[in-house]
Amino acid sequence: MLRTRKNERERLTSLLDAEHPDVDSLAGAIFQETADMLLARDWWVLLAQQPGNPVMVYGPWSSQNQALKAVPTLQFTAGGTQVAVRKLATVGELADEVE
User: Fewest CB within a 10 Å sphere: which of 26, 51, 71, 76?
Assistant: First the structure.
């Protein structure tokens, strides 16, 4: 479940309180701000490999703890399945690496 954070709510509230020429521009500003905030978050995935099968990716989750809690909910049919939890790189981190 995706939860809003206090600073994210404050950023959206400031947009709602600001003057906008019309509802369309307000909607666009809210959409862009929300997308920017979600892309800036840390995201976690599960990687799972059952013997003889390719690696499967599950997620994303917004915390490492949420990803770990999901492990028992996945139903693997083969014994010896290997599972790893990994943090995804954010857009900002990837941009820093390219420069």
Answer: 51
